[in-house]
Amino acid sequence: MFWTFLGMLILPNLFMMFTEPTSVLTRVVNIILPLGLFWTAMTLKDKPGKMFWWLFLFIFFDAFEIVLLYLFGEGPVAVDMFLNVITTNVTEANELLFQIYPSVIFVVVVYVTGIVLSIISIRNKQTLHWAFLRNQRILGGVVSVVGFILLGVNYFVDRRFAVQDDIFPVNVTYNMGLSVDRAIKSARYPVTSRMFKHQAVNVRGDSVPEVYVLVIGETAKADNMSLYGYERNTTPLLKALNDSARIVAYRDALTMSNTTHKSVPLLLTAVGSELDYDSLYTQKGLISAFCEAGFATVYISNQRRNGSFIDYLGCEAEDIYFTKDELPMTANVYDEELVKQLNERLREHAGHRLLIVLHCYGSHFDYRDRYPQRFELFKPTEFPSATKKSRKELQNAYDNTIHYADYVLSQVMKSLEQCGQPAVMLYTSDHGEDIYDDERGRFLHASPNPTYYHMHVPFIVWASQQWRALHPVQWHNILRHKDLPISTGMVTFHTMLDLAGVKTRQFMPVHALGNAAFKPSQRLYVNDHNELHRLDDCGMRKQDVEQFRLHHIQYP
Question: For the chain, what is the domain count?
């Protein structure tokens, strides 16, 4: 039982010997040092069943890590993943766990077996002989000393090495501490941001009342849109609008995060352009700025409330509507409901300056539940579980979600065209998705290290004829900048302000696509520890670099 429990504790480290892109020495240290420490810890009591429970936090980390290695192929349990556990609703969790059941079954068999064995051991009052404990304590201590020596050598030869990043479970323990700290700071956000003021003004005064709509997509990849050259005709309506020069599609747009709870706040605030993500805890967002400038503001979401920054920033609006608030947890609402709610608000606020933010559910897994049956263009879509063998069916279902998003966006533009007021729509997605796109076999998003497939997102601007006639210079600049590389988390906030004629103390013309002063900035990625890194320093691999090259996307 002693050896069984020790094997369970070190199991993820053995897997990570083959999954992590770190140096050979780092991977060796990642086995030797934790093995020695666990070995020694197991000798602290003569009852192995009780030691199992004393170390149960690490058992939990082990199980969590193995599931994530199955999903992402590499990396420790990240801060963002702990926060996702807090903010993900039960329905989303069930959808995911049901589809990755091979890894779930594996950890249940291994670690529930450990739980059963430990209970039996405790009930039977099983103990280890003192001589065995003494010998194992010596062996564990020797292995630990060797591990610490190798750790010191690793720090000397590898300047990038850090124990809180590269040694499991130290990294996971560190990340859990960070996640608790961030959760506390997030809960205090209403207090820490209460005194913040944008000092926003509408430089157009009481001019013609205009309507501005920001549509935030979910998990939409630009590469799966025929608008961006995809071989399948997934976005016929957007492509037709682009061909007739009625929309502007930015071809080289990258997100700054592969997690929703981080990327959406980047879109709704100035923190991306300020190069300080943690300033989010003390400032308000885009909606608040429009409120200060005299606009009526509306936030409509097809996602569930989860107590994250997205909720805080959305609830700055005067009119807040979550489509699923009064519905059972298992209820499924299609994004068409956002269009219905949009039309109601356009009628209610006719003749007023208006900002509306629409937050879609888009292409979030399980893809088959994100579109009505009539939009199932690509078949088959049925699969027993989300594995590499089911990639064709997963891809079909995902492409159907993009096809449906094409329809929803066309309906938003149609509604704005018919509202009788000058109007603008800006659409982008929070991040993309891995769908077993290459030999790495990665699936979903929110992994500690991003991939190209997470990063390349759509970015589309539409304006009514009335608006273009009133603001020809800004529309000219929108067109002029469409082939330049952009970070959505840097430009969205400033572009929306600039198009609406709203100026704040945070406004930066250099990040506003409709402004003549716009200049491309170095594109950065906000990593799991909220640090901003260059694209070539955020964990992407040779397969990702090749995709940037093939799609003519600037890197780094």
Answer: 2
User: What is the pTM assigned to this prediction?
Assistant: 0.94
**Residue 310 lies inside a defined structural domain of this protein:** yes
Domain of 179 in residue numbering reads as 2-185
Same domain, 297 and 443: yes
- Three-class HEC string of 493-541: HHHHHHHHCEECCCCCHHHCCCCCCCCCCCCEEECCCCCEEEHHHCCCC
Report how far residue 528's alpha carbon sits from residue 450's, in angstroms, rounded to the nearest whole number.
10
| Inside any domain, residue 216 | yes
Task: Indicate the helix (H) or strand (E) that contains 437.
Answer: none
CATH number of the domain residue 399 falls in: 3.40.720.10
Closest C-alpha to 427, from 474, 463, 461:
461
pLDDT tens track, the chain, 556 positions = 999 999 999 999 999 999 998 999 999 999 999 999 999 999 999 999 999 999 999 999 999 999 999 888 899 999 988 888 777 766 666 666 666 778 889 999 999 999 999 999 999 999 999 999 999 999 999 999 999 999 999 999 999 899 999 999 999 999 999 999 999 999 999 999 999 999 999 999 877 899 999 999 999 999 999 999 999 999 999 999 999 999 999 999 999 999 999 999 999 999 999 999 999 999 999 999 999 999 999 999 999 998 889 999 999 999 999 999 999 988 999 999 999 999 999 999 999 999 999 999 999 999 999 999 999 999 999 988 888 999 999 999 999 999 999 999 999 999 999 999 999 999 999 999 999 999 999 999 999 899 999 999 999 999 999 999 999 999 999 999 999 999 999 999 999 999 999 999 999 999 999 999 999 999 999 999 999 999 999 999 999 999 999 999 999 9
Token digits for 99?
A: 């589809």
Residue 91 lies in a domain: yes
Domain end among 152, 185, 218: 185
